[in-house]
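Hi,

Apologies if this is the wrong queue. I'm a grad student, and the batch job for HAD superfamily hydrolase (TIGR01459 family) from Bradyrhizobium macuxiense produced an output file that my downstream script rejects. I'm not sure whether the problem is my script or the file. Here is the sequence I used:
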Amino acid sequence: MTSLRFVEQLRDLVGDVDVVLSDIWGVVHNGLESFPEACEALHNFRKQGGTVILITNAPRPADSVQRQLRKLGVADETYDAIVSSGDLTRHFVAAHPGQKIFWIGPERDSSIHRGLDATMVPLEQADYIICTGLFDDETESAEDYRDTLLKALERKLTLVCANPDIVVERGDRLIYCAGAVAELYRELGGEVIFYGKPHRPIYERAMALAAEHRGHPTERSRVLAIGDSVRTDLAGALGFGIDLLFVTRGIHSEQFEGIEQLDAASIKELFGHPPRALMRELKW
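Support response: The file is valid. Your script probably expects a header line. Output copied below for reference.
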């Protein structure tokens, strides 16, 4: 590919698409408000027979994600199902009954433990760590956890990362996520298990949900992912063998400001391997 242009409308890309796997944060909302045109685009795709699975690195169960979407004004009709990294993390906990957990994350993520045999203990007593985020993502960064992670490393504890994102939008700011802490632990030599994009299990679960809704599996050539992160959305889609529509209004917005077309050198610098198309914000 020698150039990569912006497209204006989703409908121009989905003539040969049956299933859309859409990111949420940065595509459908920014953490404080929803994007009505994006919601309308996904709803219109569904109305013409398509299936929309929202695929998110939220460290909470799908029903908790749905409640947040409703509060932000995202109608249930926007999508068919939700799969979250929180769901996959819960499966890990359920598969390790009786083990004790040191939890790093804010209280708002407590639903990830709901209904599970999960005992929270101090680091010194833990069998493994679950990280859903920072205790205070308004003021902290991963470096605030270095001493804790060094102690965990001494005990050779595995860290389960329930949100591989490094940063995410909150309004017009970027805040740190669990992925930042997990990456630091990995740099220090710790063992990390990642659940969520760009890792394969979340895509496999999304495709299984799509098959349930459609009544049959869908060829990957007829699947389009939508996202705003090179590290998670683009890498995940490429690794799973599906195309991606890259939305530039999200965490990389400053890099695309004023750009109308990308040449080959810029594509390689920004993406490595290019997405199928660019769109500033999702519209039908």
